[in-house]
Amino acid sequence: MTRLLVLGLLAGLLASVVTFGVARLVGEPALDAAIALETTDSHTHAADTPDHSDTGGMSRRLQAGPGLFVGLAAVGVALGGILAISYAVARGRFLHGSTRATVGWITSLGFAAVIVVPMLKFPGNPPAVGNPETIGARTLAYFAFLALSLATLGLAVSAVKGIASRRRKMLIGAGIYAGVMSGAAILLPSFHEVDPAFPRDLLWQFRASTLAVQATLWASTGIAFGWLVERFGQSI
Questions:
Q1: For the whole model, what pTM was predicted?
Q2: Closest CA to 80 of 144, 18, 173
Q3: Any stretches that span the bilayer, and where are they (predicted)?
Q4: Dihedral class, residue 130 (left if φ above 0, else alpha if ψ from -120 to 50, else beta)
Q5: What is the tens place of the pLDDT at every residue in 104-150?
Q6: Can you say whether the dihedral through the CA atoms of 126, 111, 1, 230 is positive or negative?
Q7: What is the pLDDT of residue 54?
Q8: Sign of dihedral through CA atoms 208, 213, 214, 219?
Q9: Which of 73, 158, 203, 217 is 20 to 30 A (C-alpha) from 166?
Q10: In sequence order, what E strands does 68-210 have?
């Protein structure tokens, strides 16, 4: 188990390097545009302050460079560790395929439950979008939905464990998950706080780039972990 966990942590670290490149390429331009839009007024009012833009520029460069990499590395390592533990629990109990197939299923289900489904209910918003007074309610609702998504995924997987037919297993599991989460999406509050004046193309660019970065992190972690286990984990 210890070796498996080390391989998971290493896979997450390797994945963070790849994800950093994708984030710099597709994520940061959208974020920069949103920040520029948010700070237009403050920059206009502070135009006579000589070092204002320099300080902000230096902070932004650190945030988009070393800060971004450190953050992605931390998330990637944590994700790799969780993937390793999930793999150790699932193989032979819930999933019976090859190493890569098992890792692929775990990664795909986790990505759907942790990223895609919560994003459908609570899509990410760039700077300048959202009411500061509702941030507490929005955060609570998001994490409640996320926790329910993970719990429902576990329930669905457990419910179909004894079904022999893969087709029936997938249909019943997907039905349980979709039914519970659809009801939760209806019952939990929604927050529609996008200013109509905010550029729609920038909003969707930000959301698409956020999804692309997350997809890269999860996919590359899964691919790296599967390869590492096949290459170095034979004795596990």
A1: 0.84
A2: 18
A3: 68-90, 102-120, 140-159, 171-191, 211-229
A4: left
A5: 999 999 999 999 999 999 998 887 677 778 888 989 999 999 999 99
A6: negative
A7: 46
A8: positive
A9: 217
A10: none
The Cα 216–Cα 185 span in angstroms is 26
CA distance to 84, 158, 173, 174, per residue, from 180 (Å):
27, 15, 11, 10
Supply the DSSP string of 79-147, one letter for each residue. HHHHHHHHHHHHBTTTB-S-HHHHHHHHHHHHHIIIIIHHHHHS----TT-S-GGGHHHHHHHHHHHHH
Whole-number Å distance between alpha carbons of 91 and 66: 37
Buried b (16+ CB within 10 A) or exposed e, 52-77: eeeeeeeeeeeebeeebbeebbebbb
Tokens of 71: 């953050």
Q: At what angle do helices 166-187 and 135-159 cross, to 10 degrees?
A: 160
3-state secondary structure of 95: strand
Query: Exposed, middle or buried by CB within 10 Å (0-12, 13-18, 19+), for 2?
Result: exposed
| The two structure tokens encoding residue 43 | 């920059």
Q: Which two tokens stand for residue 83?
A: 């993937």
Residue 188 backbone dihedrals phi, psi, to 5 degrees:
-75, 150
**189: helix, strand or coil:** coil
Beta bridge partners of 91: 95
